[in-house]
Amino acid sequence: MITPIFVLDSPRSGTTVIGEYIGSADAVFNTTEYTGFYFTELIAPELLATIPSPIKDQYIESLRSHAYEFISDQTRKRSRNISTFQTPNHKPKSVNKSVISL
Predict the structure, then answer these.
(1) pTM of the model
(2) How far apart are CA 15 and CA 96, in angstroms?
């Protein structure tokens, strides 16, 4: 099992430095600012909020599962059992929904 360590805070608060420090340990895979969780928890749901699809929620859950499985696989490939994720909260005030084309 992979043990995640999340380093979260406001921009310019030292999340990258702390994550790099923790990630320098031999047992830890430092993902730097991996945005998979950020995207699946904040961006994708907002982008898809207005789309009237009966499978939208299942799709978002699939994205979340993929983000976790991807980073777990990458961590195992490096023979590590801990991953760090440092992500300052850079959530935009609104997401540009025009990037979705149907």
Answers:
(1) 0.73
(2) 26
Report how far residue 30's alpha carbon sits from residue 27's, in angstroms, rounded to the nearest whole number. 10
5-19, 34-48, 81-95: range with lowest mean pLDDT: 81-95
User: CB count, 10 Å around CB of 71?
Assistant: 19
What are all long-range contacts of 89-92, with beta carbons under 8 Å and residues at least 24 apart? 89/8, 89/9, 89/10, 89/11, 90/11, 91/42
Q: Which of 87, 89, 71 is nearest to 3 (CA)?
A: 71
Residue written as token pair 């859950």: 61
**Predicted confidence (pLDDT) at residue 64 exceeds the cutoff of 90:** yes
Tokens standing for residue 97 = 């929904």
Question: Which tokens belong to 72?
Answer: 């777990």
